[in-house]
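User: Design a sequence. Structure:
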């Protein structure tokens, strides 16, 4: 996919890599992020290459497998030609499933924006696959738009077509329940030390965790629904802290 990926500013996504814990990790990075820090804005994409490539393959296979795609892309072709094209498209889907690299010669360009992916297929490659003439292809049909979601899971980024299924952070939920119980204990006169002794933990841990009882109702609703915003995790909340005011919490974590 080198040279075919662009972000919403038109900046090319450039391959990058790093070594971590003995593993070779590949990324696609907005080119401006690879320039010296004084050279311009620092916002941009840094996506795991394997995740992005998997997403593009999934979108391509979904498109080629759609029974309506052949007729839409080839216009008013005769029935035999459409049937042949349909058969060849399904053969390509099978080939891509066996070897994802087979997908990338068919993809001409991909543009990413927040929540949206735009993929344009190569007319020449598509004509070769279907056995039709390039001038018979409906160009607009080769431009595919789809919603997608990027979600942090720890240090990793996962990509999904459409909206992902809810993912409940059971550790955070359990810690919030504990924090609310400990806050009730504190309001009845128990000390941090007494709670720590009863729970078999440290006083520092009690002080750190009890703050989670102060999260706003809107944030609690999102967490309970499995729609935890980025940054809302136990360790991050303890290490970085968060505002006491609910309105400020929501401005920080609920950006949309």
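Assistant: Done.
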């Amino acid at each position: 996919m080198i040279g075919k990926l662009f972000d919403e500013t038109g900046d090319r996504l450039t391959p990058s890599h790093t070594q971590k814990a003995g593993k070779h990790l590949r990324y696609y990075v907005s080119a401006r992020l690879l320039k010296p820090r004084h050279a311009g804005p620092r916002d941009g994409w840094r996506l795991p290459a394997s995740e992005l490539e998997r997403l593009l393959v999934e979108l391509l296979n979904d498109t080629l497998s759609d029974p309506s795609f052949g007729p839409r892309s080839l216009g008013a072709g005769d029935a035999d030609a459409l049937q042949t094209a349909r058969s060849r498209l399904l053969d390509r889907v099978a080939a891509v499933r066996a070897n994802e690299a087979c997908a990338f010669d068919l993809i001409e360009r991909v543009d990413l924006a927040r929540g949206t992916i735009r993929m344009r297929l190569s007319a020449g490659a598509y004509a070769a696959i279907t056995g039709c003439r390039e001038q018979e292809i409906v160009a607009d049909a080769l431009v595919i738009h789809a919603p997608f979601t990027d979600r942090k899971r720890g240090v990793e980024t996962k990509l999904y077509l459409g909206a992902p299924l809810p993912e409940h952070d059971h550790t955070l939920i359990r810690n919030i329940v504990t924090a609310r119980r400990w806050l009730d204990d504190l309001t009845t006169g128990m000390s941090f030390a007494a709670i720590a002794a009863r729970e078999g933990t440290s006083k520092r841990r009690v002080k750190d965790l009890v703050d989670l009882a102060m999260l706003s109702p809107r944030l609690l609703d999102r967490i309970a629904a499995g729609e935890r915003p980025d940054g809302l995790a136990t360790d991050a909340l303890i290490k970085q802290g968060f505002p006491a005011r609910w309105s400020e919490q929501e401005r920080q974590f609920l950006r949309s």
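Residues 79-98 form the longest helix (20 residues). The beta strands are 5-6, 13-20, 23-30, 46-48, 107-113, 116-121, 143-153, 156-161.
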